[in-house]
Amino acid sequence: METAKQKALEVAARMYQKDLRAPDVVIGADTIVTVGGLILEKPVDKQDAYRMLSMLNGKEHSVFTGVAIIHCCSKGGQLDTDVCQFHEETTVRFSRLSEELLWEYIDSGEPMDKAGGYGIQALGGMLVEYVRGDFLNVVGFPLNHFCKKLVELYYPPGRHDVRRVKHDSIPAVDTFEDLSDVEGGGLDPAGGIEGGPGGQAAAGTRGAEANGAVESPPPFPADLLGLIDGFKASKALFTACKLKVFDVLKDEAPLKAAEVAGRIDASVCGTGRLLDACVALGLLEKTDGGYRNTEVASRHLASDGEYSLHGLVTRHDDHTWELFTRLEVAVRQGPNAAAGGKVEDPAQSQQTMLQFMRAMHGLSKLTARRVATAFDLSRFTSACDLGGCTGALAHELAHEYPRMRVTVFDLPDVLEHVACFQPGGRPSERISFVPGDFFKDSLPEAELYVLSRILHDWPDDQVHALLGRLSGRCKPGGGVLVAEETVDEDPAAGRSNLAAALSLLVRPRGRGRSGAEYRDLLEQHGFRDVQVAAAAGGALHLLLGTRASPP
Question: What is the largest CA-CA distance in the chain?
Fold first, then answer.
């Protein structure tokens, strides 16, 4: 509401200076969309729009509009203003929407200039299940409330009866976490009044009141506090997965906290608080009947789902969490110091191996189809997935290219456990598993070699050794497909590669590389015509190089 008032006061002052007379009334309005205490502004790109719409998907959110009515007059050659403010809140619920529908809406281009990523007055209306409150408030201006306020102010009382009243206001914008740097902050109506949503300029928190300059406190650092507390959200998710809360609620729901506590052998009080935390994180839904999984939780956090990330979560909880407690050591002493030369108890090695394989299988299942289809690989009739682990990517390659036979080449200790990860308990007839070490043993013959999340694990000398072996084994016209998380050369580019960069700091080997570095590596080893693509929302950098004929 402060933004609406400051904008209106600015317009009044500008008009007074220009026309040398006071305008009768100036109206300012500012609209924001909030969900879970976060403010959603205009998306910066399609992926950002997808992120925003996913946060709103299947949930209620609030649309606030603050309105300032500035009555102006001239006294003693100076502009005098009388300010009346109010706000309107409307609750909007999105239907549970499919990925296809979300992307169809995003591809229409409409979300790109709309705060919150949608406009209810146009195509975005198809996303909305219901509106509780003033529909026009969601469009951008609460007309009904505005008209009532005008009646209060101007009829029947005259202006001399209007008192300056300090109204309660909606939370200031700076008490929310700002999810983008885009100027603005309101829904973008089809038309609009000056100072309305989508078109207003942001006003600072320092302004001149009628009785003189007043210094406001600094902006509330909500985003910083969220960052400081961020580990608590991760630990809540880790704990819920470890206790198999999402498995229980996938099989039986809704359940009360006491019922869930009985099934996971935990206290009722502690279980209730954990469940409420998961509701706040958008992982569970709470109704009068009890708690139930969201669609995302059933698909990705229950341990038995086809696209389950349960193994990845437990791996992070048991292994990565401990490594990151030694991040300071790694920063002070350099990469590899965080591992501390720790040797694992042999009795736990089998369990650790299975946990690692479950984590890799979950990640691979999530991205395998995107990797397999990023380029047209139909010219290859055979492929070898080096370090292919459970064969998740191999199955997608065989599915997408019916003429292709795929060999998974990995260490004997890994292949010992692959049977339990195969569809139907056994591999496809066109997929074979061959044990071996790709640094030492003879590589299986293939037209295409695949390195998915492999090269980042190794230092430069071993990467050169491996690519040199592939170059010698690969015939002219053959190819190598690389899929890697990359470390952006510009540290200001954002958080997308933050996890990868820090993980490489605390891990015992390997290093991060940019996409350009991976391309240069392929070209150094005789792979030409390198094609580049991105997959999984930009999480993976893909390169396909073709082996050139020897000079």
Answer: 94
Residue 50, judged by CB atoms within 10 A of its CB (0-12, 13-18, 19+), counts as buried
Residues with Cβ < 8 Å from 486, sequence gap 6 or more? 497, 500, 512, 513, 514, 515, 518, 541
Alpha carbons 528 and 522: distance in angstroms, whole number: 8
Over the stretch 117-165, which tens digit does the pLDDT of each residue have?
888 988 888 899 999 999 998 888 899 998 888 888 776 544 444 444 4
CA distance 527 to 202: 51
Per the residue annotation, which of 19, 30, 168, 520 is the catalytic one?
Answer: 30
CA atoms within 13 A on the CB side of 58: 15
Give yes or no for residue 176 having a pLDDT over 50: no
Query: What's the pLDDT tens digit per position in 237-249?
Result: 999 999 999 999 9
Residue ranges of E strands in 462-549: 479-484, 527-535, 540-547
Q: How far is CA 264 from CA 65, 168, 240, 257, 274, in A?
A: 44, 45, 10, 11, 12
How far apart CA 265 and CA 254 sit, in angstroms, is 18
> Distance of alpha carbon 512 from its chain centroid, rounded?
22
Q: Reduced to 3 states, what is the DSSP secondary structure of residue 47? A: helix
The secondary structure of 320-355 as a DSSP string is IHHHHTTHHHHHHH-TTGGGTT----HHHHHHHHHH
| Distance, C-alpha 362 to centroid of its chain | 18
What does the block give as tokens for 225? 């506090």
First to last CA, the chain: 71
Q: Is 318 a catalytic residue?
A: no
